[in-house]
Amino acid sequence: MVRTWPDHADQASARMMPCMTPEEFRVAGHVLVDWIADHRRRIPDLPVASRVSPGEVAAGVAEVAPEHPEPLAQVLADLDRVVVPGVTQTQSPDFFGWFPSNASLASVLGDLASGGLGALGITWASAPALTEVEEVVTDWLRDLTGLSAAWRGAIHDTASSACLVALLAAREQAGGLHGGAPLVVYASTQAHSSVDKAAILAGYDRRYVRYIEVDEAYALRPDALAAAIAADVAEGRRPAAIVASVGTTGTTAVDPVASIVQIAARYGVWVHVDAAMAGAALLLPEMRWLGDGVEGADSFSWNPHKWLGTILDTSLLYVRDPGALVRVMSSDPSYLRSATDGQVTQYRDWGIPLGRRFRALKLWFHLRLDGVAAIRARLRRDLDNARWLAAQVIDEPGWDVVAPVVLQTVCVRHAPVPELGGDALDRHTLDWAARVNDSGLAFVTPSLLDGGWMVRVSIGAESTERHHVHALWQLMRDAAAGRAMGSRPEGRSFSAS
User: Fold this and answer.
1) Is the pLDDT at 400 greater than 70, yes or no?
2) Distance of CA 459 to the CA centre of its chain
């Protein structure tokens, strides 16, 4: 029986109404799924970048929570009216910003199943399926990406959390914070900002987070790393961890992991490999070279919620020795003990949170309903589209590809006249990138490289085909030349509820 939402005359009875019943949920769920499907279908017609001003979304929401149930139709109307305009449409085929943030509908179903089950993942006993399905799907992806059976995996929320967990384990392996001499963490100048954040949260002194020089391909230089470690050891400091990047955020550069692990082995330093976006490429046999040397590392993380397409938040952290995590993060309160302790995986001891969602269902649904072959075909399509765009840019006068195209990201710069440089070139770059984004027709992200601004075109939205990349290339040229561009309608209205 579908709930009848009461008017103010029925307030007394409303207070006695139970929460939504399964039958009411069934009806509302069908309506919501229809809304999601319709929304996904209309995404290509929406402005890619959100155009709201600060505070505009909040102003469209009621100031106080409702005392009594509201009609589902009203809630969905507010989704359209308030929420959708306040979202940058990362599922758009014309989204080329940051990195892909795909949310395949197959994995959305897994997310719905996870929420519907409402499993409590605090121990194996609280939800055996939560633990064991996670073990299975992390093993699936371990095998699919070419890792050996020596690795064990767990699902975290993001690569930032995975990096924090790895640096906590590295800290204790190196003797902890109270061993006297300061601990040192090393990463390249192109490493993600989460490395610095994780190091500070793990208690390392920011003065001893070393950023190592990179080569002409923006990859960490092993000779510079070896020299930095030797200098720290000579001066009495303790090298604790190296974070190697496979697919840096700026240019998708790949650090030489094999050389890094050899250097680390001389000093007993923990090596964490961050392949947040690029890890998906390891599903392709022809891209397995990206993982050269990883077998010698201590931990390895990547995000299926980026290019692979599993909905947020789904990040994988693999370790060769789970005991290194358990020794740091184990907790054993009496109320969580059971007869199965010692026989099963207790993921609460592999990371920071005690409670866990059934995140594995997102991967389980995604891989089973879409299939690995289709995912591989899409990854190859994106790589091919990136190479196509790079070729167009190289052939166009005044345009340049400013970093090697390793994966699906093309870094470009336009100089209208050869002599333009410095601040003037930076202003021009930021101006034409803003014109692209303000049009609502596409979204790209400017970034600093070698002290100057360039524009990253990150290809990899699930629905992006060659004709979308072709349209972006025309849009970029129009924007850089100051020519008139079309735009997508705002399609929004805001008013206080």
Assistant:
1) yes
2) 14
Could you say which DSSP state residue 45 is in?
G
Alpha helices (runs of H) in 349-421, residue ranges in sequence order? 360-370, 372-395
221 DSSP assignment: P
For 218-241, the pLDDT digits (tens) are 999 999 999 999 999 999 999 999
pTM score of the predicted model:
0.92
Given a contact cutoff of 8 angstroms between Cβ atoms, the answer to whether 312 and 161 are in contact is no
In sequence order, the 6+-apart residues with CB closer than 8 A to the CB of 463 are 43, 44, 91, 92, 93
**Contact predicate 229/239, CB 8 Å:** yes
Distant-in-sequence, close-in-space partners of 456: CB < 8 Å, separation ≥ 6: 96, 97, 98, 250, 251, 409, 410, 411, 444, 445, 446, 447
Using CA atoms of 123, 169, 247, 40 in order, give the dihedral in degrees to the nearest 10.
20
Three-state SS at 192 = coil
Task: Report the distance separating Cα 129 and Cα 139, nearest Å.
Answer: 15
Buried b (16+ CB within 10 A) or exposed e, 110-134: bbbebeeeebebbbbebbeebbebb
> In whole angstroms, what is the distance from residue 353 CA to residue 347 CA?
9
Nearest Cα neighbor of 368 from 112, 106, 177 is 106
- Is residue 428 classed as helix, strand or coil in its secondary structure? helix
